[in-house]
Amino acid sequence: MRVNDQVKGETRRALLDAAARAFAVHGYDRTNIDRVSESAGLAKGTIYNYFPSKQAIFNAVLVEACTLAAESVDAIPAHAPARARLEAFVAGTLIWAREYMTLALLLARERICGDAQTRELISEGSIPCVEKLATILRDGGERNELQLDEPPAALAHTFIVLTNALLLQASHGDAGPQTISDLPATVTGLFLYGVTGQASIPHHRGQH
């Protein structure tokens, strides 16, 4: 009997959730296919019907986080100010992070402090995020909102690292008056001030 699309979707969802839990608890290196299959309550062979490798599952988890961030950006008009679009990106990232906070913090630490191989894995899975951010920055440059002294993709990486660093800081209560909920405005403000050289960029709340 052929498995219908709904069952396939539910199984894939169960595998992604199980993988997220396993990576959060054990890290990438100590997570294997057996751990994921056990956590999902599925046979080991089932995983290979959906993902060819552990790295493929890891990348899929990251892409899911990037997709939520991208959808949050797409929910506002493309002609909205760059600041508003960047804040929406961080807000979308936090939607995923709140559901998988342990994993989000692990990824944040590994992106900044992990070994070269792990950082490369995270970078590969984050390509959709980088591309979305690069588009926002490129649009801002073309509209003369931003002065881009580096390639948009390089600045996009910087924005992601800054987001992760402040997420870690806020999660440990070291962010002063800032909280995780404040991160969209905080990250964007620091990035625009410190990276693109914009000392004062209006915050267009509610502008469409």
In a nutshell, what does this entry contain?
The protein is mostly helical.
Task: Give the key terms.
mainly alpha, 0% strand, disordered C terminus
Description of the molecule:
- This protein has helices at residues 5-26, 33-40, 44-47, 54-74, 82-99, 101-113, 116-125, 127-142, 152-171, 183-194.
- With 208 residues, it is mainly alpha-helical.
- The termini are far apart.
- It is 69% helix and 0% strand.
- Residues 199-208 have low confidence and may be disordered.
- It has ten helices and no strands.
Shape: globular
| Biggest beta-sheet profile | none
Strand residue percentage? under 5%
Task: Determine the structural class based on helices, strands and strand pairing.
Answer: mainly alpha
Mean pLDDT: 82
Order of helices and strands: HHHHHHHHHH
The low-confidence parts are 199-208
What helical percentage do the residues reach?
55-70%
Number of strands: 0
Number of helices: 10
N- and C-termini, Cα separation? 50 Å
Radius of gyration: 18 Å
Q: What's the layout of helices and strands?
A:
Elements: H1 5-26, H2 33-40, H3 44-47, H4 54-74, H5 82-99, H6 101-113, H7 116-125, H8 127-142, H9 152-171, H10 183-194
Helix pairs in contact: 1-2, 1-4, 1-6, 4-5, 4-7, 4-8, 5-6, 5-8, 5-10, 6-7, 6-9, 8-9, 9-10
